[in-house]
Amino acid sequence: MNISLPAKNLRTKNFLIKDGILYLRYGQSFEDVIYAVTYYMKGRRRCYYCKKQFSRDKITMDHMYPRDTGGPTIPQNLVPACKSCNGKKSNMTYNQFLAFSALTTAEEKRAYRLSVNAFKEGLRSIGMFEIPNTWITPIKVSEIHTRIDFANISEKKYRQQKEYYEKYHQFQRPIVLDRNLYSLDGFYVLFVAKSCELKYVPAIVLDNVEIRRSSSEV
Ligand SMILES: [Zn+2]
């Protein structure tokens, strides 16, 4: 799939877009780059939900399909939101939050939140994500390249992913890969997949994103 990007060539201190491709430096944080691109396109002043204006430091990034049931960090899944709206929306999807916001009593809202969480647990128990199916492609584990920073490996994060997989037989989120199948997000998922000797993992392949292997290439 392609992520949404500004149409013109752009070079900022955070990212480079050339001929429709977003380039990252090898060691760059994917999340930082995507946030910078998203703020560039969607602004960093107005909350997407309440439409009010805020100073830049009061704006956060909301995942419309939340992280906890698979929502990826890509511009079409992100909107700038004030801390209050982001907090109220919490782990609901955009559509769930609209329905929730239309409710008037605290009792109704509490019941709705419980039903959302029950629904999520149901999805997990059958190994489903709550994102469009068209975003996901199964990719062979052996074909994925990792950007590894051994100094930063966290045993705790690895264990969390492993426990999640053992409980649900599914990962919390698909792995996110660039067009050459370099991992952008999901390092620990890949680690767990390898340790469980899985052949395939669910992935979101970004056909218009590329990690630059050396500074001379672009
Ligand atoms: Zn707001």
Could you please describe the fold and organization of this structure?
The mean pLDDT is 93. The protein folds into 2 domains: 10-125, no CATH class; 133-212, Conserved hypothetical protein from pyrococcus furiosus pfu- 392566-001, ParB domain. With 218 residues, it is an alpha+beta fold. 33% of the residues lie in helices and 18% in strands. Helix 5 (155-168) crosses helix 6 (187-195). The radius of gyration is 18 Å and the shape is globular. The chain has helices at residues 30-42, 83-89, 94-102, 106-125, 155-168, 187-195; strands at 10-11, 16-18, 21-25, 59-63, 78-82, 137-140, 175-177, 183-185, 200-205, 209-212. The structure holds zinc ion.
Briefly say what this structure is.
With 218 residues, the protein is α+β, with helices and mostly antiparallel strands.
Q: Could you say which small molecules are bound to this protein?
A: zinc ion
Most strands sheet: 4 strands, mixed
**What percentage of residues falls in helices of 4 or more residues?**
25-40%
Total count of domains: 2
Strand content: 15-25%
Q: What is the total tally of β strands?
A: 10
The rough form would be described as globular
On the 0 to 100 scale, the average pLDDT is 93
- Unreliable sequence segments: none
Count the helices. How many?
A: 6
**Integer-rounded radius of gyration:** 18 Å
For the record, give the distance between the C-alpha atoms at the N and C termini, rounded to a whole number. Answer: 22 Å
Order of helices and strands: EEEHEEHHHEHEEHEE
- Reading side by side through the largest sheet, how are the strands ordered? 1-2-3-10
Which structural class do you get from the secondary structure elements?
alpha+beta
